Amino acid sequence: xxxxxxxxxxxxxxxxxxxxxxxxxxxxxxxxxxxxxxxxxxxxxxxxxxxxxxxxxxxxxxxxxxxxxxxxxxxxxxxxxxxxxxxxxxxxxxxxxxxxxxxxxxxxxxxxxxxxxxxxxxxxxxxxxxxxxxxxxxxxxxxxxxxxxxxxxxxxxxxxxxxxxxxxxxxxxxxxxxxxxxxxxxxxxxxxxxxxxxxxxxxxxxxxxxxxxxxxxxxxxxxxxxxxxxxxxxxxxxxxxxxxxxxxxxxxxxxxxxxxxxxxxxxxxxxxxxxxxxxxxxxxxxxxxxxxxxxxxxxxxxxxxxxxxxxxxxxxxxxxxxxxxxxxxxxxxxxxxxxxxxxxxxxxxxxxxxxxxxxxxxxxxxxxxxxxxxxxxxxxxxxxxxxxxxxxxxxxxxxxxxxxxxxxxxxxxxxxxxxxxxxxxxxxxxxxxxxxxxxxxxxxxxxxxxxxxxxxxxxxxxxxxxxxxxxxxxxxxxxxxxxxxxxxxxxxxxxxxxxxxxxxxxxxxxxxxxxxxxxxx
Length: 521
Fold this sequence. Notes:
The protein has helices at about 10-20, 20-30, 90-95, 105, 125-130, 130-140, 155-165, 180-190, 205-220, 245-250, 255-265, 275-285, 355-375, 410-420, 455-465, 485-490, 500-520; strands at about 35-40, 75-80, 110-115, 145-150, 170, 200, 225-230, 235-240, 270, 290-295, 315-320, 325-340, 345-350, 380-390, 395-400, 420-425, 430, 435-445, 475-480, 490-500. It is α+β, with helices and mostly antiparallel strands. The protein has 3 domains: about 10-170, Rossmann fold, CATH 3.40.50; about 195-295, no CATH class; about 410-520, Alpha-Beta Plaits (2-Layer Sandwich). Strands 11, 12, 13, 14, 15, 16, 17, 18, 19 and 20 form a 10-stranded antiparallel beta sheet that branches. A 5-stranded parallel beta sheet has the order 3-2-1-4-5. A 5-stranded antiparallel beta sheet has the order 6-10-7-8-9, with helices on both faces.
């Protein structure tokens, strides 16, 4: 596009704003005594989100309520944007998790604003469609000491930052390709981090079949995954299953394998149950994508992990790339997955298993260094799949980079909000101020039809009567989130914390059992 002399392009204006981010970031973390404004926009600006079959998708905007922890700073103000209003009890509950500051002091510095729009359009686009609301925000903040925090960064978030005149804590959307499935595989090669056999930058169904013809000969396997570049939480994934014919397939000539693959395409299993082959490949052509071997248990492994064909462990490492150029490892998790092929994220356990935790940390940091070289900023994660070998060791395969916050971010930040502790990369553990380690199990998908009609006040009342709430004196208990989806969808998020893996699991099962009992009665 041509620009008149003396004017700046949107890219140049955004770069100028972002140049101010390191100083503002440092101010908020140093002994800054002046006011500071943070505009939180928890928009799920992800490809295909408007068609995703996720119950209560708008209420996932509540997962960033951990940002209220910024109100610990006595002069910070938080402007939290939502599609639909958040129940006041949810706000009160979140503020109650922040120790050492009177709730009234924090509430006076918190401003929650809603677009009053229940559509599946991402929140950032809704805000851009409401110029009067944006003007009201712009008049309320102090742009010279403000920044914006988001779940993910797209062109819509960049436009919002420009409209408000404040820098954005996150990566320039021009770096979005780094978090694509194809971009991830490229970075893994450069970082010398192993990934499953496969191919990237595929354009369409024909490319997928061509690659499968080659891979099924070179790497005989029962299953292969076909993935959209920008799919999330398994929503853009499909699995092609050759069952017990993988060895037979490898012995065929190219034309025989192609015929077999073509026939199997009609039996694809999708991460999104509402998908079909035509729609899947229509979206694939728009996004492009990858094919990779589905990593299975190694034949002959005797392990509890391999028992009953249980899914392989799918750990992840989380990073914070600061605006001042630091690469910080903030956590590792074992992800909880569901669905026929274990492709759909449902929760996580912290920390990742000791058997491969150190390796996950090392690989994640190598990827983080490359992301920093590209100019990436903010919280992000690297997903893996691990397989135990016959000798007892573990192989790790990197699967994808999430250049955004993920499902593992908010449980960690809620625990940090409650305890004000720190993650220790050397041990891979999180320690409270008292030096006690903490473990947790978290989910966004505690669901039961009997939960429908349960209000936030009802949930908090049950938790109080049955002793589920987090107990600071014991440093264990349950934290709730995603409460806005409870009454309408019967869906809830929670994080169960304990001083051991076993204690965290006990709290999780106790909370689940208690809610089911209460709602059944």
